[in-house]
Amino acid sequence: MAGNQPEKADEPTRAEKPAKADKHAKADRSAQNPRHDQSVSSRLRSLGWDPLDEDTRKYRSRARAALRFVLQRGLFRGLVRANVTQTVTTARRVKAVRGPFVLVANHTSHLDAPMLAEGLPWAQARYLSTGVAADYFFHVWYKRLFVRLLFNAYPIDRDGSRKNSGFSRRLLRSGVPILVFPEGGRQKTGTMGEFKPGAAALASSVGVPIIPAALVGGYEAMPKGRSWPKPGRPPVGVVFGDPMMARDGESVVDYMERVRAAVVDLYDTNYEQILGPRTGPREEH
């Protein structure tokens, strides 16, 4: 009788078995690599950006982005490559990032911002905005025009006025990625300093990934005090690592330490390929 037969619903179908197997395999991969299942795109992308206002609209201007493409990828790239031997290495997952993010890098010289901006894939760099000192770049009209056109720059207060406080967060929530140098200034000796946790706190609170990047050779090519690279087209490399997301329950200090460790690893792993064999003892970062 039909009532004595086992119900088919109790047995997994052929379509369900692979699904369960895939689910277990994915769980195993996630256990081995905690970032495997983490999206490298901002959760804001699914929620939508904040409406653009008078202050943020210019940072997502398509016309300005088109002009910046010509300036960065044409004129400025030619100028950089005429004075340094540039190499760019980009992790595959960087190109998977959609929406805003925080680009975090060591700060070796005045070459850093332009090399990062023109080295990042255009899909991610299109609206990249760089924070610059308000007192130095934004108080004189031609400096302000230069950094806005070339770096989509926004002002950062160094005088304690807090006039522009919170603008980084507003940009991220408006869909604009930002570049941050968490050391707080250019290196004076070529040794990487400590990273302040502000970038990690910002990325974690807004829900965007951090892309770690290492500048290799920037200090050697143009140390603090020089206004132009050394002659002979010295080698300088930019290395973009895999995007990183904050882990559940992770403090911003621990998150920033993990990001710094990634930057140090990118630097050390690519040092000899870019600058050649080390001639002295390896510096501890």
UniProtKB/TrEMBL annotation:
It comes from the Bacteria. GO terms for molecular function: acyltransferase activity. Residues 7-38 have a biased composition (Basic and acidic residues). This is 1-acyl-sn-glycerol-3-phosphate acyltransferase. It comes from Brachybacterium halotolerans. Residues 1-44 are annotated as: Disordered. Pfam families: Acyltransferase (PF01553). Keywords: Acyltransferase, Transferase. InterPro entries: Plipid/glycerol_acylTrfase. PANTHER family: 1-ACYL-SN-GLYCEROL-3-PHOSPHATE ACYLTRANSFERASE. Residues 101-218 form the Phospholipid/glycerol acyltransferase domain.
